[in-house]
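task queued by scheduler; priority normal; single chain, no ligands, no partner chains; default sampling; output format set to structure tokens
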Amino acid sequence: MLIFAVESSCDETAVALVEDGRRVLADEIFSQVALHEIYGGVVPEIAARSHLEVISLLADRALDKAGASRRDIDAVACTYAPGLIGAVLVGVNFAKSAALALGVPLVPVHHIRGHIAANYLAYPDLEPPFLCLAISGGNTMLVDVRGYTDMSILGLTRDDAAGECFDKSARVMGLGYPGGKPIDELSQRGDDRAYELPRPSVNGANPYDMSFSGLKTAVVNIAHHAEQTGQPLDKPGLAASLCRAVSETLVGRTMAAARALGYKNVAVAGGVAANSRIRADFEAACAREGRRLFVPPLRLCGDNAAMIGAQGYYEYLAGRTAGPDLNAYATMDL
């Protein structure tokens, strides 16, 4: 089954062709980083306009790369939630038009489910059930993946996402936007014990819930104090200490959940899964406990349409299709 997939939830326009949920024939991505970096973050209106400008071109390019024609497409899948509402609407309306014109089913896909499904593309032998930590700029959650379309949230951040913590910390350190990659690169030259940073938690909360607002504030306060007092700021040390704090928070809760559920397979997904410290700490923790770790290659960690095509295949098999009245949503439970 060949699925034409569309992703436009934030600042990447992406189109892909995916066969049977596991094989990527084409995956075209246009990144808007250059459009937004001068503002220090994503500007929703600019994002939506950029999606409009390039999505049709990417669709044609994907078909050419795959050596496929429109008649070969069996279904159209798209991200319909969550995300920047204007951006998501562009992808949803393009997908609805394509499905209508081709006379094929339209399959709505939750963005986070797509990130989890990126692991199916990287690991053909991975099947539910397993535990997955989904970490990105807007979301941080522990998910019990009981089936391809049967999932429940075990824990999530009560405030900021891990990716937002990296972005805001990078901004105050003068590293620009997006902040994940420069923080990661800088941290590799620093001492991860240079600064003692908090591991925030919420009193009385679910033991698997997380909090990153206090950690972000601690980094901001350290940077502002150094600036106001004229003291030197050890940026590599602060970046390394931040990566350590975030990683310990994520890895500790994930492994505790894996032990409680008895899962031998642990997956990580989303843009923050590209962080080298987090990847290394998960590898070490899983090796110690005899669990198998699944982490997508870097190209599948960020937003892409291939992951939407992968999950779209399983949503279609579960009978989850939509009509021309499909809407886009800024927020939606997994």
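post-processing summary
- The first strand starts at residue 2 and ends at 7.
- Residues 128-300 form a domain with the Nucleotidyltransferase; domain 5 fold (CATH 3.30.420.40).
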